[in-house]
UniProtKB/TrEMBL annotation:
InterPro entries: Glutamate_decarboxylase, PyrdxlP-dep_de-COase, PyrdxlP-dep_Trfase, PyrdxlP-dep_Trfase_major
Catalytic activity: L-glutamate + H(+) = 4-aminobutanoate + CO2
DNA repair recorded as keyword: no
The EC number(s) this enzyme carries: 4.1.1.15
Family note: Belongs to the group II decarboxylase family.
GO CC aspect terms: cytosol
Record-listed N6-(pyridoxal phosphate)lysine modification sites: 270
Keyword Lyase annotated: yes
Cofactor needs: pyridoxal 5'-phosphate
Cited SUPFAM superfamilies: PLP-dependent transferases
Stated name of the protein: Glutamate decarboxylase
Alphabetic keyword roster: Decarboxylase, Lyase, Pyridoxal phosphate
Length: 457
């Protein structure tokens, strides 16, 4: 068998008579001792990156030991099995009602929401609700329903492109530009028409971490309604920001305080501070979620509404979210997010003060910021080279092109999460300075082979 088709087992761990190599792509013919199987998997993933030096991801990689205990006690719970795990279901309800309150729903007891496997599923459900409501209204008015569109920034996360692709909705991208760096309501009337099912506003644009001004978008839609009669709702994709703004920018009106905001999603596993596998979506009032999207499942001899793309999924993450809500409370969440923000602003200030760079934003929305090379600074190297050099020190700091109409601009981004403290930030800054000094001393251009974005939002 050729080497590329086998996984070698360290002979120290293989027991007498056991194979010392297993086929990579075929199920083994016989059994293996659990210790050996454990070793193979354990050793293989040991080569995965070090999560604390991964400054590319938004997803939580650390919880405390009580969370770990709760996790091991509950990883067998199936969220869909509400009959068997009624108390997990009750806790799920509590969590989204807590979120409805944090997001200033007029009456959190009359909202509706659900947990999901992540924001992607939550966005799909919110988008489907927009589409279905629009279809109902159009049918009631005797109008065609075959050409729905959704209006959003060109800097949306890929889930919105997926939504449009999977559910036959035409995406209408409003391009960002130097003057309009986010969707800000500018020129919106040119994109919205009677076939628009909604506008997506992003609280914490993935590319940069900047908030889109949801209130200004809502005001632009108010003007459109006055001029044309079209009443277009907003969905806020708050994958990261909806777990930050309630604690760090509580005066910012981006949420259900704005009547036009019908629904909001967030990722429990980003700034919700839970391990991967959890999202949330909440509607402002129950009537904004069309009845015909809800299935009834049996529950304690009665029925409970179910709204999801998946059937079975882990319930443990929901319990972990509730644990964090109880454990941290508002002041704890504020303290955690504030310390991430302090680190982000310190890093941004320091990088912005370096000769070669210009900040795109400064980490004062979510604790995420991006920078670019000062235009005209050098032809010898670019941010992909800097990204490569930082990799040598174990840091993952992605560089990538901005979306339309700024695709000529390359930026580099740092996501500060719980766990990147000031000490680690100082190490990172030292490494960024050393890498930049090295690149600045080049007497000619870096070879360009391989200097391409390998990063997905
Ligand atoms: C991360 C992210 C998503 C996707 O969320 P998952 O929880 O990873 O599925 C969607 N929108 C935005 C703005 C994001 O940052």
């Amino acid at each position: 068998m050729s080497q590329e088709h086998v996984v070698a087992v360290n002979p120290i761990f293989a027991r007498p008579g056991e194979a010392v190599a297993v086929e990579r792509y075929r199920m083994p013919i016989g059994e293996m001792l659990p210790e050996t199987a454990y070793r193979i998997v354990h050793d293989e993933v040991m080569l995965d990156g070090n999560a604390r030096q991964n400054l590319a991801t938004f997803v939580g990689t650390w919880m405390d030991e009580y969370a770990a205990r709760l996790y091991t006690e509950s990883f067998d719970k199936n969220m869909v099995d509400k009959d068997e795990y009624p108390h997990t279901a009750i806790i799920e309800d509590r969590c989204w009602k807590i979120l409805a309150g944090l997001w200033n729903a007029p009456d959190p007891t009359h909202t509706i929401g659900t947990s999901t496997v992540g924001s992607s599923e939550a966005c799909m459900l919110a988008g489907l609700a927009l589409k279905r409501r629009w279809q109902h209204a159009r049918r009631a008015a005797g109008k065609p329903t075959d050409r729905p569109n959704l209006v959003m920034s060109s800097a949306v996360q890929v889930v919105w492109e997926k939504f449009c692709n999977y559910w036959d909705v035409t995406p209408r991208f409003v391009p960002i530009s130097e003057e309009h760096r986010t969707l800000d309501g500018h020129d919106l009337a040119a994109y919205v028409d009677e076939n628009t099912i909604g506008v997506v506003a992003i609280l914490g644009v993935t590319y940069t971490g900047a908030y889109e001004p949801v209130k200004r978008i809502a005001e632009a839609l108010d003007r459109i309604q006055r001029d044309t009669g079209l009443d277009v709702p907003i969905h806020v994709d708050g994958a990261s920001g909806a777990m930050v703004a309630p604690f760090l920018q509580s005066d910012l009106e981006w949420d259900f305080r704005l009547e036009r905001v019908h629904s909001i999603n967030t990722s429990g596993h980003k700034y919700g501070l839970v391990y991967p596998g959890l999202g949330w979506v909440v509607w402002r009032t129950a009537d904004l979620l069309p009845e015909d999207l809800i299935f009834k499942v049996s529950y304690l001899g009665g029925e409970t509404p179910s709204l999801a793309l998946n059937f079975s999924r882990p319930g443990a993450q929901v319990l972990l979210q509730y644990y964090q809500f109880l454990r941290l409370g508002r002041s704890g969440y504020r303290a955690v997010q504030k310390s991430s923000q302090d680190v982000a602003r310190h890093l941004a200030d320091s990088i912005g003060a370096m000769d070669a760079f210009e900040l795109w934003n400064d980490g004062s929305d979510i604790p995420v910021f991006a920078w670019r090379l000062k235009p005209g600074h050098t032809d010898n190297w670019n941010l992909y080279d800097l990204s490569d050099r930082l990799r040598m020190k174990g840091w993952q700091v992605p560089a990538y092109p901005m979306p339309d109409n700024l695709a000529d601009t390359t930026v580099q981004r740092i996501v500060v999460r719980d766990g990147l403290g000031m000490d680690l930030a100082r190490d990172l800054l030292d490494d960024i300075r050393a890498a930049t000094d090295f690149l600045e001393r080049l007497s000619g251009p870096m070879p360009t082979d391989g200097a391409a974005p390998g990063f997905h939002h």
